[in-house]
Specification:
Elements: H1 4-18, H2 36-48, H3 53-60, H4 64-76, E1 80-84, E2 92-96, H5 98-118, H6 124-145
Antiparallel strand pairs: 1-2
Length: 152
């Protein structure tokens, strides 16, 4: 049996996974929204640079067929493009486009604005501590999965 506080974390994590920030966002109208899978994929391409399907599969822990669907969608939407391997390899790689970067920036800004509203009454030191705990929590998950996420 785990520590009692571990069960509190479990319960709160379950609630967090249930809540979506989309319904709480300011300015619901206008602007294109990124699907969650595109948000994650484009975020990884931005921070790591061009990646092949195999590299994305290893990084994200997804099978090639899932990634083929996701990359096809972002390429169709002109959010990413296929390019020859910059290192001269035979695999084609995916790179975020200017449009993808613009949409990712807009989505991150909308999410940050919503988080500002959620934590409006929190002192800055509490927000900073929470960010630190989330980073530490995610780093623990990354350590267990063997899939560290590069941070900008």
């Amino acid at each position: 049996m785990g520590r009692p506080s571990t069960y509190e974390v479990e319960y709160e994590q379950m609630l967090l996974s249930r809540y979506g920030l989309q319904q709480h966002r300011a300015g619901h109208g206008g602007g294109r929204r990124l699907e969650r899978s595109a948000y994650v994929l484009l975020s990884r391409l931005r921070v790591q640079g061009p990646m092949s399907i195999g590299e994305l599969s290893d990084a994200l822990g997804l099978d090639a067929s899932t990634l083929n669907r996701q990359t096809a969608a972002v390429v169709r939407a002109r959010q990413a493009e296929r390019i020859p391997d910059p290192a001269g390899g035979t695999a084609r790689k995916f790179r975020i486009t200017e449009e993808g970067s613009r949409l990712l920036d807009e989505e991150r800004e909308r999410t940050a604005e919503t988080l500002e509203r959620v934590m409006a009454e929190w002192p800055e030191q509490d927000v900073a501590a929470f960010a630190g705990y989330l980073k530490r929590f995610n780093a623990g998950i990354e350590r267990l999965s063997g899939r560290p996420w590069p941070r900008p």
